[in-house]
Structures are given as C-alpha cells and as structure tokens.
Write a structure and sequence with these properties.
This is Protein kinase domain-containing protein. Pfam families: Pkinase. It comes from Dracunculus medinensis. It is found in: Nucleus. The protein is of the alpha+beta class and about 350 residues long. It folds into two domains: about 100 residues, 2-Layer Sandwich (Phosphorylase Kinase, domain 1), CATH 3.30.200.20; about 220 residues, Transferase(Phosphotransferase), domain 1 (Orthogonal Bundle), CATH 1.10.510. It contains 14 helices and eight strands. The strands form two sheets. It has a five-stranded antiparallel beta sheet, covered by helices on one side. A three-stranded antiparallel beta sheet has the order 6-7-8. The longest helix is centred in the middle third of the chain and has 19 residues. The chain is globular, with a radius of gyration of 21 Å. It starts with a helix and ends with a helix.
Length: about 350
C-alpha cells in the first residue's frame, strides 16, 4: 500500500482537533501595508514573536503571519538581519515552509508564510491512543525531513531547533520544516517570553555543554530523536533541565568515553555529576518500534561524536528507505546526489497547500 493511501486513512482516523490558540479580534493589522490581511486566530507566541492565522482580503487565501518582536532601536532592524531574511526567502524547497513576503514598517517586521493546520506533534497526539503511526508514514515523514535538511546542509544552513513542533503536516501528507534558522538569521535582540523546555529534548550533548562551533551534526541528532518519536509516540530523552537531559542520554546510550566524546569527558568536574552507566539500553527501547534497518539508522543519528554521525545525504541513501515508494513525495526520490534546484512546480504546489 502506498504512503499516500495510508496517510489518507490515518488522517481520517485522527481525533477531533481542538485548537489550543485563542481567538482574537478580526481587526486589521495596525501597520500600513498589512491592512490587506485580516487576523483570524492567534496560533502561537514565542521568543521571537507572535504568529497569527490571517486571511488575505483580496484573494481569501489563508496565511500564517509572524510578527517579529524587536527591541526599541532608532536604527530599526539591522541590515544583516534583513539580508539573511531575504536569503531565507530564496530557500525554496517543497519540504520547507514557504515564506512569501517580508513587510517592514514602523520598526516592526512581519513574515508572511504559507499556512498549515497542524504540526507533527499535534498529528501524533491526535492518533487513537492504541494506534502508532504506520511504518510507511514514519518512513515517508523521515525521508521528507532528511530531504529538506540535506538541501539546507548542502547550502551550509543549520536549523538548530528541529523538533516535531517545527515539522508541519499538510492534508496531503507533505512535511514542511518551519521556524528555519530564525534564531540565527534574525539577528534581533529579543527577550525570552516563554521557556520551551521541550526544545531541550532534541538537543545533542555538545549543544547542552555549549561546545562550539556547531556543525550540521546538531540537526542530525535532533532528527534521530524525532525518528524515535514518530515511531513510538514517545519522546526519547525527556529531561526537565540540562543535567537531567544528559543523565537520560547517558543512561540510554552509556556514559561516553574519551574516544566518543572527549570535549565532555575532559570536563572532570562536570562528569563527576554522573554515574558511569555501562548498559546500552537503546536496543531494548527502540526495537519494539523499529525493524533492524530502522534501528541501524537510528544508531547512526545518535552517535556521541558529532563527526561520526551520519549525514542527511547518507541517511537518504540508507537501506531503511529502499522499500519506500517515493513517487508521490514532493521532492521525489532525490537523495542528495546532486545539488537539487527547487522543482518548477514548487510555487504551484505551495499555493495548493495554503
């Protein structure tokens, strides 16, 4: 059975969706240039701004509008931030959320994105309690995620905050990576309005201990955590603070050796806080939900040494995906072997999904 037919069946089995956002007034956006949009609902709020569902008055099309928070600055937003935002706008791929426009007026910045009704976390939560995501959809979602990130890594762009909440799911089963590079690209001073501890669950150890510089392997670790969660509906490492997060990682994967993670083990005082776990618990945890090829790929995502982790390109070519029918995937069977250009049909496809 194809992933498309399985997706349609799974989509129809989802429980009724009760949005967690609060309705807002239907008043216009107050900034000149944004009056063509009617705010419908508040979708979310985070460190960098507020996201609204909005209707374009002339076309009746629905968009997601992100209002970026900025500190009071007489010079407005830096030229560097604007240049990088323009660059993000050009990052067109069928598995990356399309940014259609940037509006900057009255020292406020608005980003206009295509709209998707749910993310992968909501999708998993809405599955019946006794039902897991079908394996063909786990493969489809993972392949699309790896395609998006391979496309970005080939262009030396890191996401740094991959998690199920940043993977949107369209009604056609297309994965759209969102909030891409915002923390890095939008170089705007911002204060933390909420503490999203869930993000910690997908951070690799080298980020937790503030090792720098980061590489593409940061995203690879996060993809591994997402892989397990798609297959099991459970977070792999659900720590409530940085120390607890490392504790859970070490307990699952064994306490690292000097060879595996020298930059951490050299921090003697830091390592004394942890027991020396010697049991490798990942197989007993993951093989319940993944076959041996899937488990092999998972292990390669979750290696301690960032330089030894599998790349997204190599992941796309892993045998785990050999039996996946890629015909209906937005980017087809592209596996990173070439520097893929956005497909000509992308803009038309994007308009159909919003």
């Amino acid at each position: 059975m194809s992933s498309q037919s399985v997706f349609k069946s799974t989509w129809n089995s989802l429980s009724a969706f009760r949005p967690r956002y609060r309705p807002v007034s239907n008043a216009n956006f107050s900034v000149t240039g944004m009056t063509m949009f009617e705010k419908l609902q508040k979708l979310g709020e985070g460190t960098y701004g507020i996201v609204y569902k909005a209707r374009h008055r002339q076309t009746n099309r629905i968009f997601a509008v992100k209002k970026i928070r900025t500190e009071e600055d007489p010079d407005g937003i830096s030229a560097t931030a604007l240049r990088e935002l323009v660059f993000l706008r050009e990052l067109e791929h069928p598995n990356i959320l399309k940014m259609f426009d940037i509006v900057y007026q009255s020292q406020k910045l608005y980003l206009i994105f295509e709209y998707c009704s749910m993310d992968a976390k909501v999708f998993l939560d809405r599955l019946p309690k006794n039902k897991l995501l079908p394996q063909v959809l786990v493969k489809s979602f993972m392949y699309q995620l790896c395609q998006a990130m391979c496309f970005c890594h080939q262009r030396r762009i890191l996401h740094r905050d991959l998690k199920p909440q940043n993977m949107l799911v369209t009604k056609n089963g297309t994965i759209k990576v969102c909030d891409f590079g915002l923390a890095r690209a939008v170089l705007i001073p911002a204060r933390a309005y909420t503490h999203e501890i869930v993000t910690l669950w997908y951070r690799p150890p080298e980020v937790i201990i503030a090792e720098s510089p980061y590489t593409c392997s940061v995203d690879v670790w996060s993809i591994g955590c997402i892989f397990f969660e798609l297959a099991s509906k459970q977070a792999l490492f659900s720590g409530d603070c940085e120390i607890d997060q490392l504790f859970r990682i070490f307990k699952m994967l064994r306490t690292p050796t000097d060879t595996e993670f020298a930059s951490l083990t050299k921090k003697t005082d830091f390592m004394h806080a942890f027991p020396k776990f010697t049991d490798y618990a990942l197989p007993s945890k993951a093989l319940v939900f993944l076959d041996h090829e899937g488990f092999d790929l998972l292990e390669k995502f979750l290696l301690y040494n960032p330089g030894n982790r599998i790349t997204c390109k190599a992941a796309l070519q892993h045998s785990y995906f050999n039996d996946l029918d890629k015909t209906d995937l937005p980017a087809g069977s592209w596996d990173g072997s070439t520097l893929m250009l956005p497909p000509k049909s992308f803009l038309a496809e994007a308009e159909q999904t919003i």
